[in-house]
Amino acid sequence: MRTIRTLIILVCFASVGLLVLSCGDDDGGQPTLVVLTHSSFDIDRELVARFEQEHHVTVDIRKGGDANEVVNRALLNAGNPEGDVLYGIDNLTLPRTVGKGLFEEYTSTLRDRIPSDVRAGLGDSREVTPIDYGYVALNFDRAKGTAPSRLEDLTNAAWRGKLVVEDPTTSSPGLQFLATTVAQFGETGSYTWKDYWRDLRANDVLVVDGWDAAYNTYFSRNGGDRPVVVSYTTSPAAEVFFSEGKLSEPPTSNVIPAGTKLFRQVEAAGVLRGTKQPELAGQFIDFLLSDDVQAHIPETMFVYPVMPGLATPDWWQWAKVDVQPAALSVDGPTIERWVREWTDIMRR
Amino acid sequence: MNASWTRRRTTWPWAIPALALLGPFLLWPLGAMVWRAVTPDGSFSLGPLGDVVGDGYYWRRLGFTAGQAAASTALSVLVGLPAAYVFARLRFPLRGFLLALLTVPFVLPTLVVAIAFQQLVGPGGWLNDVLEAMGLDPIRPLGTLGIILAAHVFYNVSIVIRLVAAVWRNLDPRTEEAARLLGAGPLAAFRAVTLPALTPAILSAAALVFTFTFTSFGVVLILGAGNPDLDTLEVVVYRLATRLVDLPAAALVSTIQIGATITALTLYSYFQRGATRSLTLRGERSRRLREAGWGQRLLAFLVVVALGVFIVAPMAALVHSAFTVGASDVATLENFTSLFDDTGRQSFIPPLDAVRWSLTFAAGSAALATVVGLASARAIAYSRGAFGALGDGLLMLPLTVPAVVLGFGYLVTFNRDPYDLRGSLWLVFAAHALVAYPFVVRSVLSTLRAVDPRVPEAARMLGASSWTVWWSVEFPILRRPLLAGALFAFAVSLGEFGATVLLQRREFATLPIAIFDALSKPGEANLGHALAMSTLLMAVTAAAFLLIERLRYRDTTGF
Predict the structure, then answer these.
(1) In this prediction, what percent of chain B has a pLDDT beyond 90?
(2) Is B423 in a helix, a strand, or coil?
(3) Residue A199 belongs to a domain
(4) A144 shares a domain with A253
(5) Distance between CA A35 and CA A40 in Å, rounded?
(6) What pTM was computed for the model?
């Protein structure tokens, strides 16, 4: 009896497994457009359905970890791509793809409507098309008194043990904040960005691997004990949005003193070289630039759409920031050097 | 050691299922990554390898990694042994339930465990509330070695309890009682009679725990709170791999990790052979609590309370948060009910679908892992000498390879047309079965080696076919460890995150993926969703374990 019962359990396991495998893909012979992207990507499903109908195609959106991982895996397969379109490459990851033949050039008819300074963020490369942009800034928990007024304040005794940041080797916002400190303090002079980080380390800064640990665990707003966190300039607005009506103004604020040079991250999409349907891929990029998708970008991805003059939801007022993007031209080796030097200062 | 019965058999065909899984899904992708690393400009060069080997930093990390793994293993065995005794020898109410509960942490994604510990010992956590109420200073254990060791024991103690209790339960207690009658004290009787019989199972469990903690990743990454002195090799590999320029270095550091773990496992296997002896296995010999002596009752009480607090507290803190985060009042169900509100977003993963896929992958890969694991265990048990020990180590390979390297390896190998499996759910099954089958091997092997070779030999001499020998002699003995192994395989698949995240698609997202998705967005509602789904994952796991426990115990009541 016992052996029979065990067998029955095993057979059940196996048959459930086989059952699943037998109901494989079935999309009625339509072509499939595969979009590779990172885990923060989001889009209104109805808009995608409309695109699918219009172009008689099934859109398959595949997320593979964070932006860094997505670009890395695409590079491993350059010329023999896993998909047709890649969304989520930015001005910190694009330099690594130069000369690797990752993308096919594509010039959207809507490209001219994108402000030129945004396009310049990506060196006006024809390989990729800017879709949105964003900034990383210090967020302050407003329940904890007065916000710091300058970045330098965080190296003072009064702010000892108050700041949590993300590791630039593993986290995109972490790398953007590193770029911001480079832009702010410079590479040469009496007090460089490296001095700033040495002072932060001496002042008990907490470095964690990713944004969710920093924001959801250590930030005092979510039960941690650090009232200052490196997050996005749109996070205070997102707090209002996700409170689903409970909050009318954000519980956190951006710390952007006048004269701060914030690094601007421009995110883009590109047609992957080797795709069998370059035309469809291009149409999908046009679709991402269409007014419908662009207008939805604030509430789906919490970044700023590249197209100017679109109506934005009410709570987006908390995301409006008056900043001067840092004029920072970066290439692959430079970014690698920053990260290596940062690692030597903070990790060894 | 093994009698002539086994010598007549050829052993290598039993290794075929494991090789069929290991070859294409592990050795090939791993080899491809390493090959890329040592051919930087298209031609072979030892330069990159020299750079890694010559850097003292990696050797210091290797030393730390081994040290913390040894400490975690010792602690897990120390905590697990008394508990294994209580679960094996005593019958008390809710025993199956408690055993299932103890296994739940093992399958929780590290992300969830990190939140759980945060809710318990973090800055605003329960423990600090208690300390504050008592007028004491708050503690800050995050980022210390202590919290890492505690989390490792929290994760792994159930391996020790289950593997050891599975053997202990079937040991004839009369042997030890005989020793007592002959004048041995309880401790001496335990040392001379029971401990030697348990040693193979303890070593098995220790080998698994060591491997797990040696390759510890999420716990260190999250609870280590960025303290660079706590980085394990696997964390170093992750940091290297997420930046392209260091992918070759990541592959090479992985090989150091793999080499070190395989060496440790091979040594362990070699020594374990010496420790294995044939046991007289009986049916379950446990006592009801009220028949037990006072000493036993006290021990049972202490074990249940101590483990209960240690294991349940973080989970309770997590469940508590799931009902209170975002609550305007005392508690709220909102985090759970809103899981079912379709947001109309492309990224929305219906929680029930995620549960279904989690169960599907777990069931399918557990079945595959059981077949492969059983066959491998036979291959190892029936082979002798250094070759057998090495084979034992090699079959554990999947536990030693960093998921991120494996994930990237898949992308560079399964990318041409007849076998272009990128984005296929087959890869998820293969990857899950790969990390799961070593559990079956470990669980079955210690019993398989302990089977007195004269028993099947006698059956053969009496004219039984090999099938009959297997079916009526070996299988009944192996049934329990086999089920325990299958259960662990199931659990490993349920909680798997590292490889799945690189292979996933929204259509077959699992619960850990859905939790991760919710956690990567700001706002209380998302944190609430993540906590609610974590609670759901714990519930599903506990339910699955309870169901199987029930099946197990119902058949043993006949004894």
Answers:
(1) 7
(2) coil
(3) yes
(4) yes
(5) 14
(6) 0.77
